[in-house]
Input
Amino acid sequence: MKIGFIGLGNMGAPMAKNLAQAGHAITGFDVNFDQAKACQDSLVVAGTAADAATGQDVVITMLPNGAALYQVAREIVPVMAPSSCFIDCSTVDIQTTKQVAEMIEAAGLRGLDAPVSGGVGGATAGTLTFMVGGAADTLALVMPLFDIMGGRVIHCGDAGAGQAAKICNNMILGATMIATCEAFALADQLGLDRQRLFDVVSTSSGSSWSMNSYCPAPDIGPQSPADHAYRPGFSTAMMVKDLALAQDAASMTETNTRIGKLALQIYQQFASQPEHAEQDFSAILNDIKNTPHKP
Ligand code: NAD
Output
């Protein structure tokens, strides 16, 4: 296929490279020209987003936020080929996703929201999980592209459902990581060995992905960012972004999400120091241990 790829950052660059390696013809664009230039072995670098999108079968965006997505969508939707497909893989707010979906539909194009989980490692290895919102026949058309970039594709429903799934998943992740870290902090104070806590919880009703697969305590469980001084990983800044998106969605829908709200406040406070913002979010363990008890 002829593919336009817009947003060649930490995630977009390896995703575009995997598509190129599989034989697709990629034209890429990034506002940061150096990002695009670093990919020039795999793709043709365009001078504008509109140039990257013109005449393509599919355009994929991998952008930092809803404002960037909206700006790019306004620029490219009018120039995209009739019945071509716009796939947004960024994590953005539900409202922008729906506005962009309406723009795409009004122009007679096909569209999907397809945010990912799996991080930079998954993007590089081509093992991302895609959570997809939009029409089933559109998904079927572009499934071969998802198969190259990812290991798992879940069709979540109509436009916006992919973003909804991503936001709900990361709200659980943020909260369970805090609960897991609080349990380690309490175990330390009670004189309970961390390895023993892991052995019990990971095979009991307190188990979760945060404990079993991504343990925040160093040298325990499978390899995780905790074993590498919390770098690289899923940055606390990104967790703050996703929890804030969840709270936007909760306010919009008047949903009671008290733990999600508190989790956002806890990570926001931790991320207020720049060196913490770039650490993996499981580094919150040290902060929890150092925060004085309040009766
Ligand atoms: P990034 O900041 O590395 O990349 C975003 C790229 O978009 C940058 O190169 C930036 O220059 C470019 N950009 C910004 N505005 C633009 C515009 N108007 N036109 C063209 N290019 C523009 O971010 P990333 O880590 O690649 O993340 C991308 C998206 O994927 C985000 O929405 C993020 O939440 C989501 N995500 C990231 C991870 C992760 O682990 N990094 C995991 C899952 C989801």
